[in-house]
């Protein structure tokens, strides 16, 4: 994968937090499994803080790297603080991607925002998690 930053290459070669948490408190998904790029995040929360996060993707090397680095960006933070994670922040953390691969960052951000929105859909009964 010529032309990618060392950060992208490191997260592609040794992705962090791969898999799915079972059980998990929340899931967020972007794309459709079996129909193009797909990414899913699962988390465990404690008092509103992300204590564990995993991701699964069906995508190219930059998608693998984007999911991996996003897990590092959000772990340990309050879930409410992570809902504004943007493509630009993710691209900066990756030390850039070629413009034709920005969709990989978009995919990760979309899946993460879906997860954060799922918290809102759960309702009031989950406040302590």
Please outline what is shown here.
The protein has 129 residues and is α+β, with helices and mostly antiparallel strands. It has helices at residues 6-13, 61-74, 79-82, 87-93, 102-122, and strands at residues 26-32, 35-46, 49-58.
Could you give the topology of this structure?
Layout: H1 6-13, E1 26-32, E2 35-46, E3 49-58, H2 61-74, H3 79-82, H4 87-93, H5 102-122
Antiparallel strand pairs: 1-2, 2-3
Based on CA inertia axes, which overall geometry fits? globular
The SS-based structural class is: alpha+beta
State the helical fraction: 40-55%
Strand order of the largest sheet: 1-2-3
Q: What's the architecture, going by CATH?
A: Alpha-Beta Complex
Total E-strand runs: 3
Radius of gyration from the alpha-carbon trace, in angstroms: 14 Å
Please state the oligomeric state of the protein chains shown.
single chain
Question: Can you describe this structure?
Answer:
The chain has 129 residues and is α+β, with helices and mostly antiparallel strands. It has a single domain (6-122), classed as Sufe protein. Chain: A, CATH 3.90.1010.10. The chain contains 5 helices and 3 strands. The protein has a 3-stranded antiparallel beta sheet. A hairpin with a 2-residue loop joins strand 2 (35-46) and strand 3. Helix 1 (6-13) packs across helix 2 (61-74). The chain is globular and about 40 Å long. The model is unreliable at 124-128 (pLDDT under 50).
């Amino acid at each position: 994968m010529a032309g990618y930053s060392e950060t992208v290459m490191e997260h592609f070669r040794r992705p962090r937090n791969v898999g799915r948490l079972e059980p998990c408190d929340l899931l967020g998904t972007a794309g459709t499994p079996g129909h193009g790029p797909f990414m899913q995040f699962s988390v465990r929360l404690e008092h509103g803080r992300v204590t564990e996060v995993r991701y699964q993707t069906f995508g190219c090397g930059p998608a693998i790297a984007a999911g991996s680095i996003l897990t590092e960006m959000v772990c340990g933070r309050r879930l409410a603080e992570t809902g504004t994670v943007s493509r630009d922040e993710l691209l900066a953390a990756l030390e850039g991607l070629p413009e034709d691969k920005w969709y990989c960052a978009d995919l990760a951000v979309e899946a993460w925002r879906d997860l954060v929105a799922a918290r809102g859909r759960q309702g009031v009964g989950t406040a302590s998690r």
